């Protein structure tokens, strides 16, 4: 383990840029779990295909370029542990209507009290679950202090600089296209923005090391000698970009009154801090702490390595099952999209 604050801040900034770009151009909140859950409720719209496609395509590229960025998981980190973690995360994300991206980044950037409460809940539950279940030990993390490394290497720093520059150019380019074309062509720009946002998110997660369960478990184990606070820098870097960006859109007169390639800014309708939200946070955090994985990093790790570790595959399958379980209990499970009504002759 290494505490790498500059890497965390740079990669976090990329995540924040992806979230802000999707919001200001398309008017949608970036949420990985929501992107998955839509498939289970029959929402197969093209923007969802583009976003998830961008995330998975970039994951494959990241796995090809930097295969060492992904963990080789030990046998002591069992498939059963990973599956239970995935089930709890999927169920919690569905019950609480969000995860570390939708609530943790976008919700807190919107200054949502609901998202703030959810984030505090899943953070506390994650720390408790990782500490009490010995996730760091199960993952084989050495019981030694994680050294502070400001400058890992010139190669790593240059990669981060190029990634941040690519994120700025990608978001700015999509915004310029949306402003400069006719209204009838904006759907194409909207889909391109979704593709870019998904891709940037995957690259940002890979660069920061958040695709490694060991890195996350080390953060969620503050009493373990190898505690690694890099994840705090990742979230901080994301909010340093997303918070002023979202607040500019919501409050500034100079902000566009509607998304550059959309009709309206779409935000979650729920506002109350209720029992369902807190239950979702508890379940999500418990699964996160048990496994060291949440939806975005798990999906990236699933496709990046070609043949994924069985623990990652079990986690992702159980995560989808957890979401499906909640959808079924709410009567919203629809694995097939509703058929379009035939147009009158």
From TrEMBL:
Top-rank lineage group of the source organism: Eukaryota
Oxidoreductase in keyword set: no
Keyword Transmembrane: yes
Chief location of this protein within or outside the cell: membrane
Keyword terms of this UniProt record: Cell inner membrane, Cell membrane, Membrane, Transmembrane, Transmembrane helix, Transport
Membrane topology (UniProt): Multi-pass membrane protein
One GO location term (cellular component): plasma membrane
UniProt cross-references to InterPro entries, sorted A to Z: DUF6691, Sulf_transp_TsuA/YedE
TM spans (from-to): 6-25, 46-70, 82-105, 117-143, 155-177, 189-209, 229-249
Subcellular location: Cell inner membrane
Name recorded for this polypeptide: Uncharacterized protein
Source organism of the structure: Monoraphidium neglectum
């Amino acid at each position: 383990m290494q505490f790498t604050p500059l890497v965390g801040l740079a990669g976090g900034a990329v995540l924040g840029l992806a979230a802000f770009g999707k919001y200001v151009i398309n008017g949608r909140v970036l949420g990985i779990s929501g992107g998955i859950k839509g498939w289970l409720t029959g929402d197969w719209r093209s923007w969802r295909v583009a976003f998830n496609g961008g995330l998975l395509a970039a994951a494959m590229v990241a796995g090809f370029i930097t295969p060492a960025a992904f963990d080789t998981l030990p046998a002591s980190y069992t498939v059963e542990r990973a599956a239970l973690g995935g089930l709890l995360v999927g169920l919690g994300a569905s019950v609480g209507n969000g995860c570390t991206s939708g609530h943790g980044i976008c919700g807190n950037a919107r200054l949502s009290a609901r998202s703030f409460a959810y984030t505090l809940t899943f953070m506390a539950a994650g720390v408790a679950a990782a500490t009490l279940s010995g996730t760091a030990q199960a993952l084989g993390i050495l019981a030694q202090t994680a050294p502070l490394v400001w400058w890992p290497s010139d190669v790593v720093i240059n990669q981060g600089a190029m990634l941040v520059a690519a994120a700025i150019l990608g978001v700015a380019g999509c915004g310029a296209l949306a402003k400069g074309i006719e209204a009838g062509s904006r759907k194409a720009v909207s889909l391109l923005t979704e593709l870019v946002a998904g891709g940037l998110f995957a690259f940002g997660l890979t660069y920061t090391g958040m695709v490694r369960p060991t890195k996350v478990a080390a953060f969620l184990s503050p009493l373990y000698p190898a505690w690694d606070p890099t994840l705090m820098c990742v979230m901080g870097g994301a909010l340093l970009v997303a918070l002023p960006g979202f607040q500019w859109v919501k409050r500034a007169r100079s902000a566009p009154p509607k998304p550059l390639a959309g009709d309206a800014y779409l935000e979650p309708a729920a506002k109350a801090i209720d029992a369902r939200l807190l239950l979702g946070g508890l379940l999500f955090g418990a699964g996160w702490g048990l496994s060291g994985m949440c939806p975005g990093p798990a999906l990236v790790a699933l496709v990046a390595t070609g043949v994924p570790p069985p623990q990652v595959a079990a986690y992702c399958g159980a995560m989808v099952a957890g979401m499906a379980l909640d959808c079924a209990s709410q009567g919203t499970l629809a694995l097939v999209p509703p058929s379009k009504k035939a147009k009158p002759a």
